[in-house]
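Its record is set out here:
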Amino acid sequence: MRFLSSFNRFAGKWMPAIVILSLCTGVYFSDQLGALIVTVPYVFAFMTFSGSLNSGFRQILGIAKHPLPLAGTFLAAHIVLPLLALGLGNLLFPGNPDLITGIVLEFSVPCAVVSVMWSDMNHGNASLTLSILLADTLLAPLVVPLSLRLLVGSNVQVDTLSIMRDLVWMIALPALISMLLNQFTEGRAGKEFSPKLAPFGKMALIYIITINSTRVAPYLKHMTPTLFGVAATILAIAATGYAIGWITAALMRQGREETVSMTFGSGMRNISAGAVLAAAYFPAEVMFPVMIGTLFQQLLASLFSKMLKKRYN
């Protein structure tokens, strides 16, 4: 147990470096690990379950009385960013529908569970952060396929029903079970099991990144100017995601806590979910824009964390 606690603290502190190491491991051992890709959806469902154990319906009910920050975050994350991704994709990579689809998918997936950690570290509004995460997670089976259908459906084959089914099993259902368990035990399940499962949740994330990166090994081993351009585009849009959340909060005249929650809620995407969908339903080239985002997300979160702390002292 002591080892697991030490690992959990170590992984939380060094996650950006661990992400890069996991990505390199998957690329280097792609031939040996590639067959494990079929296990990723099951591991992802466990990660969603363990990451949602501290959640409950009370947070959503409380935010429902003041829904403006939640609506603003949803607008930034699921309308502004996907449209920006589509526009830049078509502008910079015309005639390459797979790369465009990957860029749009990267910014259509729901909010990342790890946003709760970053928001808590920066003293955000805990109820708002959880509400953003839960609402985004439960709506993912509708929002993600609809975004892909509307934005890139004319360029690639989008299996909307199958994507919805997988998102229900990987994200919505595990999160709902966690919420119900926490609700019926009056919070005891979260307090008792969440700390115990947290190290395994981080192990699951490392496993998912490692195995999914085997799909992009051919591209990372033979980088081209186009792929470097895709990486730079993903970095720019990802940084814009955090900035848009912050700006939206400022325009709505939100306080410090709400601004922190909206910044990370808008900026942090569930890249692992996007990678699972890309591996299951699209050509391998779609995976590259999604997976390359894992290199930037935690680093950008750290950067904006410092900027928020400087802004609010």
